[in-house]
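Escalation from tier 1.

The customer reports that the assembly of three entities below gives different structure tokens on two consecutive runs. Tier 1 could not reproduce it. I'm attaching the input and our single run for tier 2 to review.
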Amino acid sequence: MAINIPELRQKFSNPGIAELDLIARYASLPEDERRGRMFDAFAETGLPGRRVEGWRWTDVEAAAARLDGTVAPVVVPALSQPHDATVFALSPTELETPEQLPDGILVHRRDVVPALAEAENIPMAALAGSLCQYKDNAASIVIEITAPLSAPVYVNWVGQSADTNFSRLAIVVRSGASLDLVESYCGGASLSSTLVELKLEDNADVRRSLFHAGDAHEIMTATALVELAANARFVQTILSLGSLLSRFETRIGHTGTGSNATLNAAYLCGADRHCDITTFVRHGAPSCVTRQMTKGAVLAGGRGVFQGKFLVPRTIGQFTDADMQHQALLLEKGAEVFAKPELEIYADDVECAHGNTSGALDDEQLFYMRQRGIPLSRARALLTEAFVSEALASASPAVRDALHDTAREFLSEMHG
Amino acid sequence: MADDLRVKDSIDKDTVAAAKALESDNYEAGFSTDIETEFAPQGLSPDTVRFISSKKEEPEWLLEWRLKAYERWLTMEEPDWAMVQYDPVKYQDIHYYAAPKAGAKYDSIDDVPEEILETYKKLGIPLREAEVLLGVEGAAETAAAARETPRVAVDAVFDSVSVATTFREELKQAGVIFMSISEAVHEHPELVKKYLGSVVPQSDNFFATLNSAVFSDGTFVYVPPGVRCPMELSTYFRMNAENTGQFERTLIVADKGAYVSYLEGCTAPMRDENQLHAAVVELVALDDAEIKYSTVQNWWPGDENGKGGIYNFVTKRGDCRGVRSKISWTQVETGSAVTWKYPSCVLRGDDSVGEFYSIAVTNGRQMADTGTKMIHLGQRTRSRIISKGISAGRSDNTYRGLVSIHGKAEQARNFTQCDSLLIGGDCGAHTVPYVENRCADAQLEHEATTTKLSEDQLFYVRQRGIGEEEAVALLVNGFVRDVLQHLPMEFAVEAQSLLKVSLEGSVG
Amino acid sequence: MPVMLELKDLIASVGDDEPKTILNGLSLNVPFGEVHAIMGPNGAGKSTLSYVLTGRHGYDVLSGKALLDGDDLLEMDPEARAAAGLFLSFQYPVEIPGVPVMTFVRTAMNAQRAVRGEPEISAPDFIKQARLVANELKLTPDMLMRPLNVGFSGGEKKRLEIFQMRMLEPRFAILDETDSGLDIDALRTVAEGVNVLRDEKRGMLVITHYQRLLDYIKPDKVHVLSAGRIITSGGPELALRLEKEGYDGIVGEAA
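Tier 1 run:
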């Protein structure tokens, strides 16, 4: 039974060229009920634009319309691999794994398309889920971590230049296991959406460090759905240099008592770069802790977006301790920073706070540095580096220096 | 005279008795006045609009303006983004106009039916100049009494019609125009025409457009250049008739270098059905002018099961049109079943200042979605937002705000603080700020916290012999102090007791 | 000795929006090898002078000149003035989170050296020298690893200013109320640190409200600043007289 393209088109209101491509792509895949449900969820909004709450500042629809399909994105070098890491390369068609997997790592290829809960709330993730298809009929890939690992795991999200990239990966970290996960998102596809589903069982410990850089012909969204069971610890650090449009969306569910999440991110946006850091944390179990620090620095023609939300449900969210901070620097005229730090609280015995600042570098600090003989441009770079590095301190020791160096290099190229 | 002086004292007795009779002791203003009322035909149509306009003997341009708004409204959809849920408003069941039958216009205050005056008296609103002069507002035991007797000029709006305006002569000498907007349409058409809809355009939003079509009455204030309004101006709104909506429209213009402080109070009787209040307030401050607008909103919130109560869907916006102008909103929101309200400032003039100080209390089944928008257009514009939300019972209380710095608003500044306090585990407190910065040398700072009423503090206070309700009131007063101090003194006193009443039964 | 710092008829204002004239025709010469003190009542323009000389934004020179060893300071950016050898010990040193003291000083040192065409200091040499100076000023190595001025007490911040001065070895130093907030031991430590740098190739301007500091850093000359100009000058005895008689008398006398 073939998928009926005109019928599919009906589900979209005014589909654009990019959406028509996606429809055709979907129609070429094997039919599957769950895949269909995800695609329907995506069709509700289509490529989300400014009329969709949560996307008002990150308008994929408009960016896709602006993309000139004839210009292939220049692929930015990926984050260098830590020397002892177990390296996976995930392309839209296949997960390349090392010949010999270390103890404690299992890889499963399954021919069943996994369902995606709440797909209707995350249109780009629903898109990734509905269009992801690996070769040899593998519809999903699961990496299972069964023990504390001694070396980092490196996942390189490889795109196929000039085209689209939709990948989905599930990682399960078993009770008591630990994982130092490093991911590089320098795929270079003109439109990509990736989806990581990360499940931490009781007492599991995951440190996730992400890097993204892309050029001005690239739209990328990376969604992570993270579930934390009792006493699980999750530390995430992102460094993003943006692309034409980029968004890291992280959804955390505290589902077991006493879990702990740290969500840090730094974005550095030059001209024609857009970085969006979006997080949603649901405190669905008592006594869970969330600490969040996002730092950004934006140059002329760049745009930084931060959207954070803590949801604390009634009763089960008691004794929540959650703090969200976003601080951004507008380094030049023509820089833009938009923020929406949100709290939705239904339990009374909680401590929740958020803070948001945006502005220029401190004049007094700049003058002090110049008085000591440091040239203005150098002083600006130094102060900015100090400013963002706080958010990178939580990165894996395996790549922390590399992330700092990348940030420093970016800032040293900045004009004073 | 002694009786007059004790008006405030006597409210408590009267209203408590009235409230008790209705088995709800949380609402002091919940009584209705039995007078003959003239209604517009039920429902909304071009004829309703014409009826209202002709009742007010309005000029043709204003009728056209209303009809245009009506046409526009038909094409609009009710907003659904706020964190509130309510039964759909039946726009065709509402009376868009209700006036005391004796006639809309009184030559002298003595012609106002005694029942109406009694109503205001029960509410503690000094209507007669004599009462005001005697300082009826300040009960002897209050702090206000220790100061110079406050003098407040009052415009009272009863359902759709403005019934009395005090102190007009004295204000006239100062050059201040203070009258109902329907009078102003006749007496100062050039001013009304120039400023009406210039801050909140007809097509602004669903409720504002509805108001533009059917607004019944409201207050008009014009303070001429260089004049400091010699007294506080005040309007007291009261919804009395059944099945009515209230759609007042207030327009305040402070010309160059002028200053005015304006107080607004609202009450409505307890009714089982929901009543709609869709007001529009427009403020215009020209060069160096300052407007201070204070609200104590105590519309009927509905009973503890969420039956009845006012839908308070209000559009309030100030335009700092001139350089160095300043507009300051202070609100104490304790009433209404559903509140949808965002008093805002457009900071157009260079060096202009916008402020928003808010206390929003929700209890029972109330839902409030309120906050502000600060739109920075001019250079060196500054804004300050202090919001204190207190949720109790099964209520939901949301702060929603926007701070938008445009590219040319160099050296703009904003400071925002929104704190939420939860009393009990069945309520919700939410914060939804949008912060848009497009200017590299602007500085924005936003802080927010959500906490519960501290048991340690509560115990400490009670250990010192203070009863639980009193202790809660004390702690809540501490929580909102930053905002209370921005209210005019006599209003602050009223607000404090209102907070206490609103939170009764929220602990224990 | 030839003149090192030459200030002539300086008129300067503060503030972007509504400029206010603070320096009102100030003239002053500090020869090579000398230390001059500037004293004056609050609001006389003492801190303004230090900011005008170091080129802080918002302090505009309307007329007059300021030369350091013949070079026109007013034409230079703040960092160029620093590289020319001008150092200000701030009255209120600013906190710079995230930038450790060592990183900061080394960056400053090498930036200045680059301008002067000198080679960079090597990391071991730098660390050696920093330890030495820190020890003299009773700063612990741990303090040098911390972000600049963050979490330092008032006295520690002042010692850190002198630490930087010693490391950067400026030709001309301005000490702006360096004594404020110091107890007597700290004062002595700071003064000793300053005195090490006194020689015939350098000059100093010590701005202070009280005579106390001058017991430890002995000035060659004392100037009284009032309403934006030098109203009287003299030897160290002038400072003692000020301490005894207060500013009112002397200011009144000069007027």
